[in-house]
Amino acid sequence: MKRVALQERPNWREKATEFGFNFHTMYGEPYWCEDAYYQFTLAQIEQIEDATAELHQMCLKVVERVVKSDELMAKFQIPKHCWEFVRASWRTQQPSLYSRLDLVYDGVNPPKLLENNADTPTSLYEAAFFQWLWLEDQIAAGNLPAGADQFNSMQEKLIERFAELKTQHGFSLLHFACCQDTEEDRGTVQYLQDCAQEAGLASEFLFIEEIGLGERGQFTDPKDQIISNLFKLYPWEFMFREVFSTKLEDAGVRWLEPAWKAIISNKALLPLLWEMFPHHPNLLESYFAEDNPPPMASYVIKPLFSREGANIRIIENGKEVASAEGPYGKEGMIVQEYCPMPRFNDSYTLIGSWLVNDQPCGIGLREDRALITQDLSRFYPHSIIG
User: Fold this and answer.
1) Are 127 and 354 in contact, with CB atoms under 8 Å apart?
2) Cβ atoms within 10 A of the Cβ of 369, count?
3) Which of 28, 165, 239, 248 falls 20 to 30 Å from 348 in CA-CA distance?
4) What is the pLDDT of residues 18-70, one digit of tens each?
5) CA atoms within 13 A on the CB side of 278
6) Rounded CA gap, 33 and 47, in Å?
7) How many CB atoms lie within 10 A of CB 51?
8) How many C-alpha atoms does 105 have within 13 Å on its Cβ side?
9) C-alpha dihedral over 216, 217, 218, 219, to 10 degrees?
10) DSSP H/E element including 139
C-alpha cells in the first residue's frame, strides 16, 4: 500500500461539474483530491475483500442475537415502541441495499474494523463513479499502466441490486428521500436514483420534510401518492425518536435501509462483536463504557450514535490526543482499543470498504491531518498495480 504522487487531470473540475459532482470542494476546502493516489497489490485488495465479507456475516449474527433479547434492544438504545418494528424487519427478511465498513489497514497487518456505516453511508458517488472515471482518464493519458485496475464494481452491483428489487421483491416504484440543504446527501441520492433508473425501476424524489401522513396511516408524497417503498438517507435513530415513529409499524412501507440496520449501524455493535468473536484478527477490543471495561493504555471513546467523527475522544498512553465536538453522547458510550491509522506524509488514512447486496465490491479512501476522520476529510482515488 503506497501513496503515489500523480499529476491531476487538467479538466477534472469541469468534468465534475458536467457529471453533477457539486461537492468536490466544500467550504472552500478540497474534498476530492487527485494530486496523489493509493496503490495496492491484488493480494492486498483480496485481504480487504475477505475481511469485509467475514465481518459483514459476523455483523448479521449480532442482529440475530439482538432481536431476540429485550435487554440488548434496550442496550442498543432502540425505543421500546419500535422493538417489534425492528424485529419484524429481520423476521421477514426485509432486503437491504448497501453498507460501508470503516477499516484501519496498512497493507501488511490484517484490516481492523472501526465501525459499520450500515444505515446511511455517504461518499458513495465519488467511490463508485468518479474515481472510476479518474482511473480511465489516467490510463488513457499514460499516467497509469494499461493494466492498472481498481477494486470497484459498485455501480454495476447497485444496478443489479435495483433490478433484483424490481423483479424478485416486487418493487414497482421506489421513492428516494433525504433532508433539505444537504448537497452531499442530495448528490448521493441522485446517483442512486440514476442507478435505479438504469435498472428499469421507476422512482420519485422527495425531501424527508415533505413526507405526509394519509388518512389511513400511510405515508404519502407531495402528489398524495402512497409511499410503498422508500430509500431514505436519514438515520433510524432520528426516525425512532420523532412523533410519527408510532406510525412506522402500520404504514406498510418497505424501507431501504431496513429497520434491522439500526442494530449494526450502532456503535453498540462493536462490544457485541468482541464478546461473540473474541480476539478475531479483524476486530478491536471493545466494551460498553458502563460495564467497567478492563483498563487499556490507549483507547477511543465513541458515542453509540456518533456520525462523521462527532464526540469521539482518543486516549493514547493515558493522555487525550484528539477529540471532536458534537451533539452525541447522552445515549451511552463504548470504549474501543486504539489502533492508529497508517500515516502518509502529514495525514492519516482510512479505508471505507463497500458492500452491495451483502457482497464486497469496492473501496474509497479518506485522508485527514487530524486523527479523527470527519465529514470534510479528503477523498483520494486508488488503483491496483501488481
Assistant:
1) yes
2) 11
3) 28
4) 999 989 998 888 999 999 999 999 999 999 999 999 999 999 999 999 999 99
5) 2
6) 25
7) 22
8) 29
9) 140
10) helix 131-140
Helices (H) and strands (E) in the chain, counts: 11, 22
Relative to beta strand 98-104, strand 347-356 is antiparallel
Of 276, 284, 381, 290, give the one whose Cα is nearest residue 340. Answer: 284
Is 353:110 a contact under the CB 8 Å cutoff? no
Torsion of the alpha carbons at 78, 80, 82 and 84, rounded to the nearest 10: 110
Strand order through the sheet with 2-5: 2-5, 36-40, 382-384
- pTM > 0.85: yes or no: yes
User: Distance (Å, rounded) from C-alpha 360 to C-alpha 154?
Assistant: 9
Q: Which residue is it, cell 503515489?
A: 4
CA distance 173 to 253: 12
Residue type present at position 335: V
Q: Pairing between strand 299-303 and 313-316?
A: antiparallel
| 140: its cell numbers | 488513457
In this prediction, residue 375 has a pLDDT band, given cuts at 50, 70 and 90, of low
Region class of 53: left (phi > 0), else alpha (psi between -120 and 50), else beta: alpha
SS3 350: strand
Q: Pick the closest to residue 117 from 211, 41, 188, 179 (CA basis).
A: 188
**C-alpha cell recorded at residue 2:** 503506497
C-alpha cell at 51: 475481511
